[in-house]
Amino acid sequence: MIASSVVTSGPTQRPVQTLSPAPVTQSDKVIPAYHLVNAVLDVAIPRGASKDRILRGTGIFDDSLTVNTRISAKQCIALFSNVRGQCKGNDVSFLIGKSLGGIWLREDIANIKRSQNLEQAIEALTAIRWGSIPLVSFKRFSLQDKYIWVLQDTMGCEKRGAHKLWPFIAELYLSMLVALVKQWTGTRLPLSFTIDSERPRNVQDFETYLGLRVAFHSPLMSITLPKSCMTSAFPFADEKAGNVQGDIQGDVQGDIQGEAQRSLAYQQTPASPQDTPNLSLLDYIRIQTLQEPQKGLADLARNLGCSTATLKRKLSDHNYTYRGLSEEARRQQAIVLLALKKLNNEQSASQMAFSDLPNFRRTIKRLTGLTPSELRAR
User: How far, CA to CA in Å, does 15 sit from each of 194, 299, 303, 304, 305?
Assistant: First the structure.
């Protein structure tokens, strides 16, 4: 929903459209806790952790945990941080994801299994994202005969603490999605994964829970799947199922306008998953950065109905700066256009809103450490 406010500038006044309510932040309690906490405890306790230590400092209390309990991303991050610190073994993240997708979320999202195909199932899953994938967002790009989904840190996990929590969280949700897709389709689809880190010692865990198509030392963390798999009929499809309402993120130039518009269609009372804004603050800014690169922090603050200082503070709470977040979005866009889509300089510069090629080449080198030609050669 868009609310109008008036900003005074000199003798004139002009209306400014602001988002109401604002995108979800780390502090908003929108994440259903019951299944998540139980999946964590099911894995963590047999691995040497105690319930008290896992929940310590999270503000989550086992004796008052019900199916209606909602927690914030900040609490969720603290929970996962405790798990990683307390549990033995490098496969804990994968096990929690498998437990979520294979056991704890099964009943709540059983209706998704009746979707016509994977396209509808992903759309439905994303529509309830705070109950399924709250700390990760997936941006989809079309590449000839396949789709690629790039993982994005949606709540500021990546830079948290001396030891980054983001790889643990990404592994958890990748494992969860593999378990869900296997349930929906009755088989293992030819999913491929790229991981933006060096080949780890526990590579066998990646192969066990994600499959053998895993490549490391990639510029992006992503999932790839042939387009034909998206429309293949589900064995459990419900013939009466109509179009699933949801929010699936599209190609930067193709669907980002629709994604931004959907992000504005908020309801007033975020009391339930259906009434909660679908985008996080970080994802909203990423989208706006790509859609309108000429606008800056002050423009975004006005859109959000807050001061520039307040928006800076909110980004700092998520372990980001505006410049860091916008450059991350531009870097990802450059890698997709040049390294994956193999577009030439003129096409890429146009899509990235550059008016001259020398400036485009300098920016690509600064963002990625490589020239456009070197990116295309990867």
Answer: 45, 13, 11, 13, 12
Note the Cα 150 to chain centre separation in Å.
Answer: 8
Cα 107 to Cα 30, 72, 271, 356, distances in angstroms: 20, 23, 21, 54
The list of the chain residues with pLDDT below 70 reads 1-21, 107-108, 110, 159-163, 239-276
- Taking only the tens place, the pLDDT of each residue in 241-298 is 444 433 333 333 333 333 333 333 222 233 344 455 789 999 999 999 999 988 899 9
Both tokens assigned to 284: 């909203």
pTM, entire model: 0.84
SS (H, E, C) 135-175: CEEEEEEEECCEEEEEEEECCCCCCCCCCCCHHHHHHHHHH
Which amino acid is it at 68? Answer: N
Check if the beta carbon of residue 227 is closer than 8 Å to that of residue 118: no
At residue 256, the pLDDT reads: 31
Rounded Cα gap, residues 357 and 130, in angstroms:
41
Residues linked to residue 29 through DSSP beta bridges, in sequence order: 72
Structure token digits, residue 308: 């520039």
CB-based contacts of 186, cutoff 8 Å, min separation 6: 235, 236
List helix spans (H) across the chain. Answer: 34-44, 51-55, 73-86, 92-99, 118-127, 129-132, 166-185, 203-210, 228-231, 256-264, 281-291, 297-303, 308-317, 322-334, 345-351, 357-368, 372-376
Cβ neighbourhood burial of 244 (10 Å; 0-12, 13-18, 19+): buried
Strand order in the sheet with 192-194: 136-143, 146-153, 222-226, 192-194, 214-215
Residue 61 pLDDT: 93
Largest CA distance in the chain: 68
CA–CA separation, 69 vs 252, rounded Å? 35
Query: In this structure, how many other beta carbons lie within 10 angstroms of the beta carbon of residue 62?
Result: 12
**Nearest one of 28, 69, 20, 54 to 318, comparing CA atoms:** 28
End-to-end CA distance of the chain: 43
Nearest 10 degrees: CA dihedral of 274, 278, 280, 283?
A: 170
Q: Which of 187, 190, 192 is nearest to 233 (CA)?
A: 187
Name the nearest CA neighbour of 102 among 229, 211, 224, 209: 209
